[in-house]
Design a protein that fits this description.
The chain is of the alpha+beta class. It has one domain. It has three helices and eleven strands; from the N terminus they run αβββαββαββββββ. The radius of gyration is 20 Å and the shape is elongated. Keywords: Signal. Pfam families: Cyclophil_like2. This is Cyclophilin-like domain-containing protein.
């Protein structure tokens, strides 16, 4: 009997400690979804579905030939991201994954539904695999990476994992 009381007290202590460490969680009703579209015009747009500092809403990736010297080094086209009405310059990586993303945009719109995950990122399935060159990295707010070869992740916090950097 004494052993059962000690075991119950121990389990309750563990449950209390784990609930205190959980931090902020997102209920399924609070999930913020976003849709990413990749197309061949000039801008990448992410329009917020709610006013919020976190990247959410509809997003479009576009390419445009603009003939600058720097762009020639990365495939003669550039992609620009817009969040709401604000254009955000992205320093796109020079790798096969970004090249494949540009090729997808040249073929027309690609829609990617994105959801918040872990309180520090938005994740969306691309619908196909892109070339991977995963490296252990620590991300920061604003980083765009490829996860598992088929998901785009946009960070608004930090995380350490093995990713292919996109921008």
């Amino acid at each position: 009997m004494k052993m059962k009381i000690i075991l119950i007290a121990f389990c309750m202590t563990i449950m209390f400690c784990m609930s205190a460490c959980s931090g902020n969680t997102i209920n399924s009703g609070d999930n913020q979804n976003a849709v990413t579209e990749i197309s061949t015009s000039e801008n990448v747009e992410i329009e917020s579905s709610e006013e919020n500092d976190e990247p959410e809403g509809d997003a479009m990736y576009h390419t445009e030939d603009n003939g600058t010297v720097d762009d020639e080094a990365i495939g003669d086209s550039t992609m620009i991201m817009t969040i709401g009405d604000t254009k955000v310059n992205v320093d796109w990586e020079d790798n096969r994954a970004v090249e494949a993303l540009r090729d997808m945009a040249k073929d027309g719109d690609v829609t990617i539904k994105m959801t918040m995950y872990g309180g520090f990122e938005q994740v969306g399935s691309i619908g196909q695999s892109l070339p991977r060159d995963d490296k252990q990295t620590t991300t920061s707010s604003g980083d765009i990476v490829l996860y598992s070869g088929n998901q785009i992740v946009v960070f608004y916090g930090s995380n350490s994992w093995s990713y292919t950097r996109l921008g």
